[in-house]
Design goal:
By secondary structure, the protein is an alpha/beta fold. It has 7 helices and 14 strands. It is globular and about 55 Å long.
Length: about 270
Amino acid sequence: MSFDARGGPNAALYSPSMPEITFLGTGTSNGIPVIGCECDVCHSSDPRDRRTRTSALVRFGDHSILIDTATELRSQALANDVRCIDAVLMTHAHADHVGGFDDLRRFNELRQEHLPVYANSVTAAAIRERFAYALTDLYPFYGGKPDLILHEITGPFDLFGQDVIPIPVLHGRLPIVGFRFGDLAYITDAKEIPSASLDMLRDLDILVLNGLRERSHPTHLSFADAVDIIESVQPRRAYLVHLSHETSHVQAQQLVPAGIEIAWDGLTVTTRSG
């Protein structure tokens, strides 16, 4: 069984001039298959059940924006032929979202310049502590390490002519952010979305939202939690990411209403104008 990255009902809508998102990874912190696990999902032959840690690439105009540096960033970039990154947006600094941070150095080498990284104050502090070497110029060349310029975000900002709106959410007690680009919004690892942030998610074409599993979880949205939020803000389309191995792709799709899709690694979808 194989699936085109632009397969499904949106395939005919693709156009290079339209904003698009590629799901580089759609799995939870363990990835799928999970080490040493004998469950049916971890041994599934459905390629949609092989999930690397959650991250995404958003393209608009001629620019490619990476959201999070997942542990498998190198393999994700190779699998999706990612050759250029113009900026990096960080949702938070948990290991599964920053584990591939050092692989940014290859994009410095390809571009022969520094890369801008955007994060809220909590995540920026963690980056400064863990990756201080990436924020200091040590070598007279690019590629030996990441060479980054860290921008601490406090509200909406312009990125290559596109307004980017940070969406504050709570990952348990940890304040993290999602991002809105026009009529596309991306949120992962949320457990609670405050009412003010819900208002920022209205009138969307595409909402990407985490849905860990069917059972409740203390720091992540369950499928039912995610469905409630989607039904509240009413995007035209919705995709769930950050799934665990408790549910296969097919099973998860059966647990959500029509109009909500379970994303998989390599899927690309585009926003619709109008």
